[in-house]
Amino acid sequence: MDSSQAGGGSVKKRAARIAVDLMIALVAGEALYYAYRINTDRNVQVVTGIVAVTAVSVCLWKALRSKERLNRRTLKRAGKKEGITKLVLLDEEGERIKEWLLQGETSLLIGKSSSQREVEVDLADTEYASLVSSQHAVLNYADGGWFIEDLESRNGVGIRQSGRGSAVRLEQEVPFSIGVGDMIYIANTRLLLK
């Protein structure tokens, strides 16, 4: 699953929720119209009024809770972006091999250095160097956070976000927001953001 598919699912869920909310509002409006315009039984009017007030209160409470959760997630993610201080190359057992400091940097090219071109994150001496393109990916700092972009590499770039089980493959030349604890896969080479 790539990042565009992940975002598409979220948009579809949001559209479905809006459609359901509109249907509930329509049914509630019709019930109120029937209870107060067509019906003459006072008990039906009282019960319908109580149910309507309760339903509106529950909907408002859910909307506020959802917005608070979204704000907490956004703040948490923003804190993760700002907290990135280094990029750590890991071996197969998860042990640190090498690290690059990111503080004060705005852009770092990931790939393999050669006599024609230097890269800031050189993976030429890694176990899977043959799978790493000379200019594989770039890390950029913008708008208070770090982003990674696949530079049309042969073997792609994957990201496993902190707390998630599976990695997503990045689209080429599309920036992807990253945070502390995320794992970057350059071919089969693993880089951890700390």
Could you tell me the mean pLDDT? 84
Strand content: 25-35%
Number-wise, the strands total 11
Decide which structural class fits the backbone.
alpha+beta
Overall shape: it is rod-shaped
Order of helices and strands: HHEEEEEEEEEEE
Q: How much helix is in the residues?
A: 25-40%
Number of helices in the DSSP assignment: 2
Rg, Å, rounded: 25 Å
User: How far from one another are the termini?
Assistant: 25 Å
Taking the sheet with the most strands, its summary is: 6 strands, antiparallel
How are the strands of the biggest sheet laid out side by side?
Answer: 2-1-11-10-7-8
Which residues form runs of ≥5 with pLDDT under 50? 1-7
Oligomer state equals single chain
How would you characterize this protein structure?
By secondary structure, the protein is α+β, with helices and mostly antiparallel strands. Helices cover 40% and strands 26% of the residues. It has two helices and eleven strands, in the order ααβββββββββββ. The chain has helices at residues 3-38, 42-82, and strands spanning 86-90, 96-101, 107-111, 121-122, 135-142, 145-150, 157-160, 168-169, 176-178, 183-186, 189-193. The strands form two sheets. The chain has a six-stranded antiparallel β-sheet with strand order 2-1-11-10-7-8, with no helix packed on it. A five-stranded mixed β-sheet has the order 4-3-5-6-9. The longest helix is centred in the first third of the chain and has 41 residues, at 42-82. The radius of gyration is 25 Å and the shape is rod-shaped. Mean pLDDT is 84; it is low at 1-7.
